[in-house]
Amino acid sequence: MQLGVDILLDGVMRTLREAVLPAVQGRLARAQLFAVLDVLQNLRDRVESKAALDDAEAESAVHALTQVIAAIGPITGAALAEGLEAAPEAPPAARAAALRALLVRAFDVVDALPDAAAAPARAALATHLAGQAMRDVAVLKPSLLQEISKG
Amino acid sequence: MGDQDFIARLESYLAGRLPAERPLRVIDLDRSTEGFSQETFTFDVETATGTRRGFVLKREPLAGLLEPYDLEPEFRVLHALSDDPLPSPPTPWFERDPTVLERSFYVMARLPGDVPVPAPRADGSPPVDDGDRPGLGADVVAALAHLHGIDWRSLGLDFLGVPAAGRDTATRELARWERRIDASGLAVDPPLAEALCWLRRNLPETDETTLVHGDFRLGNFLVVRDGGAARLSGLLDWEMVHLGDPLEDVAWCISPLWRGGTPYAGALLPPEEFVEAWESASGRTADPRRLEFYGVLTIVKMIAIMLTGLRAFRDGRTTDLRMAIFDQQLPFLNLMLGMTRGWLG
To answer: What's the order of all strands across the beta sheet hosting B39-47?
Structure first.
């Protein structure tokens, strides 16, 4: 996810206040909308993303990166090994983000190798990507895109 | 600017463009919710004699998915195509002066028809009825083949930038979208990094340069009922028009992104059938290597567009909460990348 919970809630409140509220005429509906804003502005600093999701991603990323370093050797993989060491242990979201960035670097490192040498590393990375893609989608709800498009 | 002020300014502007139809009134002004990028307004112009004509106005947004915006290139293309049999909307006027409607805009004729949205209907049925798919699919393929056959040089469209033969076409397109990703300033996720590496390693060669719509897909097709049959009546949203490889449009149109919950390209035809029909109608060959490249680039482009929208939302430059839902869409695009690239079985 690119947006933190606080940024999302700030944006929801901004939209309600600036784009929705001016179009709401009924007194009861306006009162309810103000109540929503009141709830959201107090919720904002009391929630954070689930640590279990970040922990699962980090564990899978570490496994993949360790396999990559083993496959490409300690010299080629030196920067990745340093990155693994330097990744913060906590908070979970920061650790997951650091390891995600390291995976991106890993693709560049592996891409500079001949195909035969890169293949086992690419396979390790692919296993992580597949698992993470499924984990990311598993927590999502069905989209209301049709209704959003029609208005 | 309130609606009444907007209408008054628009009436004044149009009176200058339609002097024979003065006095005129702008009525039934409505802002469309379908588009996620440019602001789209529909309205009618009613003259003193009671005649009515429908128009669509596209205005530069404050922030959007394809920023920074310059509406002039697409206006010039649409204007140049106004007399072509291709069902693009005749587009007579472009205005850059911010004193008119605060931001640049262009006005085009409103074509008849409705736009099927690339998602299942509320009752779960596909966006295009089975009985309509073959005929509408043939119309869409024919329009795409016609578009790719347009003599863009004679229309003076080389201002769009002419790629050289070889890898230049693919290189330009990949660079264009990498720039957008960089400009978003948001983190590149590993699936996107993998795709970018693969694209850089697999730039295909071509000497075919055609007009490329850039967003040729279900959701940008206007459809009318003609004697019971569904027919294509318009091609919309030319924001990404450029000169390039025609297979970029083919790959975009058949992408899983726009199948509306069906197995069909554009919810119309089986993908292989769509490609074969395009080959037959255009007289071109769909080189599998180029098609694969643009198939991956399609999803990368969509991710780049979403990252741009997310950045605008994060920065507070838009109150359009629809930009925020992209955060929930990105994992699905990663899934599609996995299936397209083969790392997800």
So the answer is: B24-31, B39-47, B52-59, B105-109, B93-95
